[in-house]
Amino acid sequence: MIRFVDNNVNDAKTADIGRQQRFTDIHCHLLPGLDDGPQTVSESLALCQSLTEEGIGCVVATPHQLGRFDGCNDAAKVRDAVSSLSEALKNNGIALKVVPGAEVRVDERICKLLEADRILTLADGGRYILLELPYEVFIDVRPLLSELSCIGVQAVISHPERCAPVAALPHMVRRWLENGAHLVITASSLLGDFGPKAKKAAWYFLSSGWVSLVATDAHDTGRSCPKMKVAFDRISIKLGKDLACLVCIENPSRLVSGQDIVRLRPSSQPQAE
Predict the structure, then answer these.
(1) Which residues pair with 156 in a beta bridge?
(2) 233 phi and psi, to 5 degrees?
(3) Are 220 and 229 in contact, with CB atoms under 8 Å apart?
(4) Which pLDDT does position 9 carry in this prediction?
(5) What is the C-alpha separation between 206 and 24, in angstroms, rounded?
(6) Cβ pair 183, 177 in contact under 8 A
(7) Is 162:186 a contact under the CB 8 Å cutoff?
């Protein structure tokens, strides 16, 4: 059985809080025309409507920064895009709160770019940053984790289950966690949408107690649509509703408000799918 690490939050309290709230999505590409998400405002509004239908009340907009989008989506541009989309949501009667953020490709310049306000932390809160790893090769991010810690920032590693070199080295993932990182897995990975290997890795990480958050990583209303409800239900069935509430509701909400993320005590008997 997976247990929660203390952090001043007990299991029952966490579950009660979770059941009273809507989902918070901390990884979503919903800003129009910035990256590989929606290209028009109407497409963005359709995705936002889909998010609300999934029960999501707050979402962090996370357009890609650095990597192949280096120089394209600086912090000021993302903040302006969030402001414009929020106004469009209000005008169209879509009840969704959108806050700024980014999915930042691992890069040796990250700390300097953060200090220069060129790239964004999640919810623009200065405490957590969403890091994207390369899919082709393994990079040990421990030096970067140390640098981020020195400026008071914690890393949230996006979809490690979808990075084959990472999934193949789970002992390295555990070392990242020991160095202060958090894992967020994609809801659709748990359902097999990214293939059997990603699905197996996602359930392994989750049932091992290594995952702090689940997010949609939605890009559109088609193949890459949000699937938070069904992922929440699958986690509830396999690993318990308390865990589902923690990773889908409580911890995402804590991240957005700048609070401590509740960690889990690793399980001695992780489950594969």
Answers:
(1) 130, 182
(2) -65, -40
(3) no
(4) 46
(5) 18
(6) yes
(7) yes
- DSSP string covering 112-163, please? HHHHTT-S--GGG-SSEEEEE--SSS----HHHHHHHHHTT-EEEEE-GGG-
The arrangement of secondary structure in 3-265, i.e. its CATH architecture, is Alpha-Beta Barrel (3.20)
Contact 75, 119 (CB under 8 A): yes
Which of the 8 DSSP states describes residue 66?
A: B
Taking the CA atoms of the chain, what radius of gyration do you get in angstroms? 17
Residue with tokens 């090769």: 137
**pLDDT score of 22:** 87
pLDDT the model gives residue 7: 45
pLDDT lower than 70: segments of the chain: 1-21, 266-273
Matching residue, tokens 């160095």: 179
β-pairing, 182-186 vs 154-158, is parallel
In sequence order, what DSSP letters do the residues of 260-271 get, joined into one string?
PPPPEEPPSSPP
Structure token pair of residue 82: 């969030």
Task: State pLDDT tens for residues 119-148.
Answer: 999 999 999 999 999 999 999 999 999 999
Enumerate the β-bridge partners of residue 214.
Answer: 185
Average confidence score pLDDT of the chain: 92
Place of tokens 């109407």: 42
User: What's the rounded Cα separation, in Å, for the pair 53 and 208?
Assistant: 30
**pTM above the 0.85 mark?**
yes
Q: What are the CA-CA distances from residue 121 to residues 110, 171, 234, 246, 266 (Å)?
A: 11, 27, 30, 21, 27
